[in-house]
Write a structure and sequence with these properties.
This protein is an alpha/beta fold. The protein folds into 2 domains: 7-249, Peroxisomal Thiolase, Chain A, domain 1; 262-410, Peroxisomal Thiolase, Chain A, domain 1 (3-Layer(aba) Sandwich). It is built from 13 helices and 15 strands. It has helices at 21-29, 65-68, 73-89, 112-125, 134-138, 142-151, 166-180, 197-205, 244-249, 278-290, 311-323, 336-339, 346-360; strands spanning 6-15, 18-19, 36-37, 50-51, 101-107, 157-158, 185-192, 235-243, 256-265, 300-302, 331-333, 362-363, 386-387, 392-399, 403-410. Helix 11 links the parallel strand 10 (300-302) and strand 11 (331-333).
Length: 414
């Protein structure tokens, strides 16, 4: 079976750096941090009081007020980002093509905000006061469900739920669906909105998140020797994927081509990656093989780069194992230094950033890189964005449960 080529024709985003792709991208390349004190609840008494919150989102700009009340905030972010991506792409869904357009969007934790608020209602006011919209507001696949209803997309409609690898798995799965001929276009990506007492408390209990509360903007510091954990973020990143001929036929703007996808498991530990980086190494190699890309063709890696003591040296090790001598020539940066870690939304937002790196020839920096770690000794594009010709870029996402997903994007060249 001949594989159909798949390109990206639209981008949409809500992130701690701003609502909209352009606003987020400009802040990113200027090295601005989206991290601050938590305002969504009173974090007094928590070990961590900081996060990457979305600050400027106005749901009424995207969603009818009546509909908003039936959507958890994660679904609102997903629908809004999809609306931006659809507008950007110019894709029109009609009765004639509706069953050839799908929606493949996932989240890691889903509607935790709704679960916490409705549980309070249950305890204080009893089961009779639970909203009939409670269940549809919290389940992850209501994100693609709501998006499909909004735009009339009747093709494949699924959600991969794989913790921090969610965004990449959904984009990769959508790529495969179009390659196979199951759809001609898919709205795809990842979303998360779980800056809640339970989530922050849970990650604190695991000692996974930063407690650098007095300097929020410096708390996310991937690959830096003084990193002390990741910083939670929220938001959504959505791509419009299209089969190449379908995009060319309507004279669509093409940002990049998706050429590779790897997915596998560590089979090692519920939260920690394999110490030798075996899973990440095999996953990157699988992505390269799937796209017939030689390691030395890759110019840039948007790293998983979480800013945890354990992840960053292991990812560095894995990159060296895959790329050998070429690892020294690669630019590697972690945009989580500015957005925090968006969990299920990370892969979607980072895919948008990786694509714009190719499209605009600017590599985003890793900010807060002050003290080199001898175990992390690659070129992490420290502190300042860099103009560069980038033809092939990789984006890494590795999740709890030992799940890994790697995407490879290429500058579109006809």
């Amino acid at each position: 079976m001949s594989s159909r080529r798949v390109v990206v024709t639209g981008l949409g985003m809500v992130s701690p750096l701003g609502t909209g792709v352009e606003k987020s991208w400009q802040a990113l390349i200027q090295g601005k941090s989206g991290i601050g004190r938590i305002t969504k609840f009173d974090p007094t008494g928590f070990d961590t009081t900081i996060a990457g919150e979305v600050k400027d989102f106005v749901p009424e700009n995207f969603i009818d007020k009546k509909e908003m009340k039936r959507m958890d905030i994660f679904i609102q972010y997903a629908v809004a980002s999809s609306a931006m991506a659809m507008e950007d792409s110019g894709l029109r869904i009609t009765p004639a093509n509706a069953d050839r357009v799908g929606v493949v969007v996932g989240a890691g934790l889903g509607g935790l905000t709704t679960i916490e608020s409705v549980h309070k209602v249950l305890l204080e006011r009893g089961p009779g006061r639970i909203s009939p919209f409670f269940i549809p507001m919290l389940i992850v696949n209501e994100a693609p469900g709501q998006i499909s209803m909004r735009f009339g997309a009747k093709g494949p409609n699924t959600s991969a739920v794989t913790a921090c690898a969610t965004g990449n798995h959904n984009i990769g799965d959508a790529w495969r669906m179009i390659q196979r001929g199951d759809a001609d276009a898919i709205i795809s990506g990842g979303v998360e909105a779980t800056i809640t007492p339970l989530a922050v408390g849970g990650f604190n209990a695991m000692k996974a998140i930063s407690t650098r509360n007095e300097e929020p903007e410096k708390a996310s510091r991937p690959f830096d020797k003084d990193r002390d954990g990741f910083v939670m973020g929220e938001g959504a990143g959505i791509l419009i994927l299209e089969e190449l001929a379908h995009a060319l036929n309507r004279d669509a703007k093409i940002y990049a081509e998706i050429v590779g996808y790897g997915l596998n498991g560590d089979a090692y530990h519920i939260t920690a990656p394999a110490p030798d980086g075996d899973g990440a190494t095999r996953c990157m190699n699988m992505a390269l093989r799937s796209g017939n890309i030689a390691p030395e063709e890759v110019d840039y890696i948007n790293a998983h780069g979480t800013s945890t003591p354990i992840n960053d040296p292991i990812e560095t090790r894995a990159i060296k194992a895959v790329f050998g001598e070429h690892a020294r020539k690669l630019a590697v940066s972690s945009t989580k230094s500015m957005t925090g870690h968006l969990l299920g939304g990370a892969g979607g937002v980072e895919a948008v950033f990786t694509i714009l790196t190719l499209y605009r020839g600017i590599i985003p920096p890793t900010i807060n890189y002050d003290t080199p770690d001898p175990e992390c000794d690659l070129d992490y594009v420290p502190n300042t964005a860099r103009k560069a010709e980038v033809r092939v870029a990789m984006s890494n996402s590795f999740g709890f449960g030992g799940t890994n997903a790697v995407l490879i994007f290429k500058r579109f060249e006809g």
